[in-house]
Amino acid sequence: MSFSAEQFKKQFPLFAQEENANLVYLDNAATTQKPLPVINAVRDYYMHSSANTHRSSHRLARRSTDMVEQVRDKAKQFVSAASTREIIFCRGATEALNLLAHCLCCELQPGDEIVISTAEHHANIVPWQMAAARHNLTLRYVPHIAGIPQFDQLEEVLNERTRVVSLTGGSNAIGLRPDLSVIRQLLRRMQVLWIVDGAQLAAHEKIDVQKIGCDFFVCSAHKFYGPSGVGFLYGREALLQSMPPWHGGGEMIAEVEFQQSRYADLPHKFEAGTSPLAALAGLGAALDFLARQDRTAMVEHEQRLTRWLHRELSASPNFRLISQERHNLGIVAFVPIHGSAADLMHWLDERDIAVRVGHHCAQLLGQTSGHQVTVRASVAAYNTDSDIQAFLQALDEYCEVQQLVGSGQESASNRW
Ligand code: PMP
What is its EC number (predicted)? Predict the structure, then answer.
C-alpha cells in the first residue's frame, strides 16, 4: 500500500480551516495535530457519556468505566503489554517519569546509582535529580562526545550500585534514536531496571515492549495524534506490584481505616483521583486511528522528508546542522550562520511556517554540544513534499536577505 501524505492530512480538520490554508506545521515533536475521530471522541464523551467512573453504577457511570477499560486494552495492544494491569494512565510522559522516580527511588539505599544521558528531555532528568537529592543517590551519565551520548559505551557507567537506567527512546531535540537492542544487550546480565522514555518514539515506531525488553515505557498521547493531558506508563506487572503507590486518594484504595489504608489492585493502585476521562476517550480514538494506518508506510514517508531536510541543510553554507541524518526519528536541528535562530523563527512564522526555537527542554545537550539555541523542524506523516519545499524556500529567502543586510558574523545569540 502506498502512502499519500495529502490524503492522510485530510483527516486533520485544523488544516482545512481557512486561516490555516498555507500553514506548514513542522513543530510535531512539541505536539501533533488531531484527526477528526479524536476530536469527535472527546466531544462525544461530553455530549453522550459524561459521568465519573467506578464510583457509582448508574448507566452513564458504567459506560464511562467501560470506556476507560477498553482504552486500557487498546493501550495494552499498542505497546504489546502482557496484561491491562501493566497499563497505568497518567497525564503523560512527565508524570509517568515522576511516578517512577518517586516510587523506585524511595526503595533505594544511599549511594545507589541511576544512569541517564545528556540527550534526555528535562522530564527524564529533573525527577531523578530530585529523587537523588532526597535519597542520597548518585546520578551518572552515559559517556558522550560533544553532548551526543555513546549508548554503546553504557557499560562504562554501570557497576554493582546501578539500580535504574532511564534513557530516551528518541531525542526530542536532535531526533537521535538509540539502538535499543544494543542497550538491551548491555543490560542483559545486570540487575537493573530499564526505563524507556518513549514520548517521541511512540509516534514513529510500532512499539513492542516485549521485543524492546524494557521494564518500563512511558508515552504521551498528544505526540501521536491524541489529546493533551493524557498518556500512560507501561510497567512489568511484578515490578508494579512490588512498588509502593504514588499519589493517595480516591480510586486507588481497597479499604481506608483510621491510621492506614489497603490499596487497590493494579492498575488502579497508581491512578488516584478522577482520570482525564474525555482525554482518555480521545486516546482510545487515537490508538484506533493509528491501528488503521499503514505504520510502515508512514515512517518511510517521514524518513524520506527527514533525509531530504538533512541533505539540503548539510549542503548549505548558510546553516550549521546539529542533528544527524542517521538513526533520526524525524527531527532536523540547525542554526543559521547569519542572523539568529530567534530571528529565523520569526521570519518563518510570518510565512506561516511553524518550527520551534530554543533549548527544547534539553539544556544538558545544549550545554555539552555548545548549541544551546537551535531551530528545530520536526515532521509528522501529514507533512507533504510541498511543506518541505515551502520551508526550504523560506530558508533560502531568509539567507538572501541576511546576506543583503551583510551581517557577516554568526550571531552570538545562537551560542547563549
Ligand atoms: N520526553 C520527551 C523525549 C519529550 O519529547 C517530551 C515532550 N516534549 C517529554 C518527555 C514530556 O512529555 P509531556 O510534556 O507530554 O509529559
Answer: 2.8.1.7
Q: Which of 361, 363, 365, 378 to mutate to test the pocket of ligand 1 (most atoms within 8 A of CB)?
A: 361
Shared domain check, 105 and 83 = yes
Confirm whether the ipTM is greater than 0.90. Answer: yes
Number of domain units in the chain? 2
Mutate to test the pocket of ligand 1, among 28, 172, 360 (most ligand atoms within 8 A of CB): 172
Q: What are 297-321's pLDDT values in tens digits?
A: 999 999 999 999 999 999 999 999 9
Each residue of 334-347: pLDDT tens digit? 999 988 999 999 99
What is the CA(199)–ligand 1 centre distance, in A? 5
What secondary structure does DSSP assign to 335-378, as a single string?
A: EESSB-HHHHHHHHHHTTEE-EEE-TT-HHHHHHHT--SEEEEE
Ligand 1 center from residue 359 Cα (angstroms) = 13
pLDDT confidence of residue 410: 47
Alpha-carbon gap, residue 412 to 397, rounded angstroms: 22
Statement to judge: residues 256 and 363 lie in one domain: no
Q: Is 361 annotated as catalytic?
A: yes
The residue segments making up the domain with residue 268 are: 38-292
Strands 113-116 and 162-168: parallel
The amino acid at 16: A
Q: Taking residues 54-75, what's their average pLDDT?
A: 91
Q: What is the reported pTM?
A: 0.96
